[in-house]
Amino acid sequence: MNSSVLTALERAVGHQRRFDVSFEKYFAELAGDVGGSRLGHFTPRCLQLLAELSLRGGKRIRIALLYEAARLVTEEEVPGLLEAALSLELLHSHALVLDDIIDDSPLRRGGLSTYYACREDLPENPQAALGLAMMIGDLAGFLALRVLVQADLPADRKQAMLDVQLGVTTDTVIGQILDLERDVTSSADEGLLETVCEYKTARYSILAPLRLGLLAAGEDLAEHEESLRRYAALAGISGQMRDDYLDLFGDPDVTGKPIGADLRAGRRTYLVRDLLAATDADEHDTVKAALGSPDCTPQTIDRIRDIAYRRGVHHHLQSAIDRHAEAASAEAASWRRHWHEEAVAVFEQLPSWNTRRTR
């Protein structure tokens, strides 16, 4: 690994560590900020569960992208980045809570999902547990906007950043709707897969941090919007494919999720598409029977993984991951004529790193 890659990774780790300290501080102050002792018993518990989910790991890729996007323009300290970072991660928590409710997923980031924690708290009242989990997801989404509204920034810059985050909040919910359509549509095509990826991954995980960081640094986005969107789409597809790959071929001790969670949830991912296309009739029936079956046994998942290896699905999907990552890196390389070299290098290297990540 060359020195420029190491420097970029070290900077990314630094961004993440500093943010984690600020995120802990945010949650430590939040209960008092929204009402303190007048909040009864459920609200403090909801805040606690939101904090536990938000602080319990995560790659913090959005944070690195946000800060490095500002560094494309300037190496000076940029006001508003912390509030933008908090907003991005709170919106991510919102999406995770919704995902786990929709998928009926017991685990997230190596611990109980928020939904299952609510079910443990209220074992005799599953409807209230579901409602409470939904409220935690809603709370995270509203807090994501609130923290930006309260940022001490010039009015025009704050409005531009709010417009981005309002748009991506809407996109995230639309992405959830599209995700449901994909998973109940047996003939979901490539176009629907890519649209889901655009709304659930590219727009809020890549494009939003890029746009927020550049806006906070005072950049006019008009000239760069098409290139930013191309980069986000390519890197987003590559990253989503890697997530899909890890669902079957990853290490659950590293990913924090059981092997085959997407299969059991009936998610028609890139991996499932490739798996169904590569199998013979008997193997195809095995995969279809497991798809959407929460009672699917670990032995069946092991059998499906063996089928996938034998049919070369892992190689086919990894090749697609690499192709999209290389195209994203090439798009980022075109930014050298506009922006600072060191920050551009991060965006060039990120897709390649993403192709081999283990969680």
Question: Can you walk me through this structure?
Answer:
There is one protein chain. The protein has 359 residues and is mostly helical. The chain has two domains: 1-192, Farnesyl Diphosphate Synthase (Orthogonal Bundle); 222-359, Farnesyl Diphosphate Synthase (Orthogonal Bundle). It contains 16 helices and two strands. It has helices spanning 3-34, 42-55, 61-73, 81-103, 114-121, 126-149, 155-184, 190-216, 225-249, 252-255, 261-265, 270-278, 281-290, 298-310, 313-333, 341-354; strands at residues 107-108, 111-112. The protein has a two-stranded antiparallel ribbon with strand order 1-2. A hairpin with a 2-residue loop joins strand 1 and strand 2. Helix 3 packs antiparallel against helix 16. The chain is globular and about 60 Å long. The mean pLDDT is 91. Its cofactor is Mg(2+). It comes from Streptomyces guryensis. Pfam families: polyprenyl_synt. One of its GO terms (molecular function) is (2E,6E)-farnesyl diphosphate synthase activity.
CATH class (first level) name of the largest domain:
Mainly Alpha
Through-space gap between termini: 20 Å
Q: State the order of secondary-structure elements, H for helix, E for strand.
A: HHHHEEHHHHHHHHHHHH
Largest sheet: 2 strands, antiparallel
Q: Structural class of the secondary structure composition?
A: mainly alpha
Organism: Streptomyces guryensis
Cofactor: Mg(2+)
Pfam family, one: polyprenyl_synt
GO molecular function: (2E,6E)-farnesyl diphosphate synthase activity; dimethylallyltranstransferase activity; metal ion binding
